[in-house]
Amino acid sequence: MGNWVENEGLSIFVVLVWLGLNVFLFWWYYLAYDIPPKFFYTRVLLSHALALARAPAACLNFNCMLILLPVCRNLLSFLRGSSANPVGGLYVAFTYLAGLTGVIITLALILIITSSTKTIRRSYFEVFWYTHHLFVIFFIGLVIHGAGRIVRGQTAESLAEHNPELCYKNFTDWGKKGSCPIPQFSGNPPMTWKWVVGPMFLYLCERLVRFWRSQQKVVITKVVIHPFKTIELQMMKKGFKMEVGQYIFVKCPAVSKLEWHPFTLTSAPEEDYFSIHVRIVGDWTEGLFNACGCDKQEFQEAWKLPKIAVDGPFGTASEDVFSYETVMLVGAGIGVTPFASVLKSVWYKYCHDATNLKLKKIYFYWLCRDTHAFEWFADLLQSLEAQMQERNNADFLSYNIYLTGWDESQATHFVMHHEEEKDVITGLKQKTLYGRPNWENEFKTIAGQHPGSRIGVFLCGPEGLADTLNKESISNSEADPRGVHFIFNKENF
Q: How many whole angstroms from its chain centre is CA 140?
């Protein structure tokens, strides 16, 4: 129970607070429009539709205030109802400012949501990228949505002379001598801008910082072509400082003047350059591949390499690796890239001053369908394996590579060469395993070997695997604070 609270407690608390605030705002604004005499006559026309429209609008304002904060990457690194209006729905929607802006922001929101699905992001990233910038239109429409003051309430001066609950029954005599005066109304002033002006200011500052950083000169010092159309870009930039597992956004104007794409840094902070590995899987990466001259046989001169703009680096959960004595690193497919930076940095720290290194044991798991696609990472493991053996500390890093996809001819080849000293796939002494890990057994084994320890579990991989590891982290942690505890961390960007 204690570890469940440690792993999930903060997230659950934040969600409950968020839900509570939304419920409170809905209830507060519903009553604010459904009870006061100021809106008596508006309620006569619209019934409860007025309150049912304004209460969700308050929740929308609140959430639009929040939605700008997660896209401020530098800030994070540092730390709708129907109407009974007799005028007609369509007429209001396209002739009133409130209706027209409401239609526009709804369409923008629909496009943003639908283009954010996993299928669109993976197969048509450009569609996702461009439609996502409709958020500018969304917020502009949201801010001016209330400028038409379509929601009208009785003025305070009029309420002092005209009590709607008493005067409503004799509305035919309004204005006559001895009767109720004709009520006066005024529209509510726009309120949304008050909710979003703060986050908008922060986001504007964020964009200015990004623009300034993107204008700083980046030099590509080396381009390495790895098997299976994977290229490594080694770069330098004045003042660039990174931590393990961080990521950057990259723009190549020669390919696209507007598109920025995220890549995990595969270099270590101790190196005098920073690097990314790019697998050619789409139009933009293909364009970068060609712009770097990788499609040509002859040597590419450095001055012919394309200009690159870099924004970042931005933080991830992997930065906490050195806070534990024991860690489990789990990479699935391309999710192995953050751990290239981690393992390199571990080695540099180990060689420089092992006595001050808190981290004493690494359990590394790599799950992939085709290890050939990431031979560059197998080369890194080979280097680490050899260097650890030279220092008589081969037990510092325990790794297991799981091949999750293979055909019959490959299986025959594996069996024929199984007895060789080195693995036929990776060239490592540790043999490649086939299938998927039994995570329950893995967690129990590690828990038994490190009693009373806080073990960091770091994953860069799919949601299904994240759910499995999170559950195992909770179920294999002891209730006793002095017992073993697995702390789950997942990469997201």
A: 24
Q: What are the DSSP calls for 181-233, one per residue?
A: PPP-EEEPPP-HHHHHHHHHHHHHHHHHHHHHHHTS-EEEEEEEEETTTEEEE
For 217, other C-beta atoms within 10 Å of its C-beta total 11
CB proximity list for 401: less than 8 A, separation 6 or greater: 366, 368, 371, 378, 423, 425, 426, 428, 430, 432, 433
Q: What is the pLDDT of residue 493?
A: 47
| pLDDT tens per residue across span 190-232 | 777 777 788 888 888 888 888 887 788 888 888 888 777 788 8
Token reading at 37: 């005499």
Please tell me the distance from the alpha carbon of residue 80 to that of residue 52, in angstroms, as a whole number: 9
**125-132 and 283-291 are packed helices; what angle lies between their axes, rounded to 10 degrees?**
100
Rounded Cα distance, 469 and 457, in Å: 8
Q: What are φ and ψ of residue 274, in 5° steps?
A: -125, 150
Radius of gyration of the chain (CA): 30
Those residues whose C-beta lies under 8 Å from the C-beta of residue 146, and which sit 6 or more positions away, are 98, 188, 189, 190, 191, 192
Cα(332)–Cα(377) distance, integer angstroms:
13
Is 440 strand, coil or helix? helix
pLDDT tens per residue, range 175-198: 676 677 778 777 777 777 777 788
Positive or negative, the CA dihedral 39, 41, 44, 46 is negative
Which residue is listed with tokens 């929040």?
66
Structure letter (DSSP) for residue 107: H
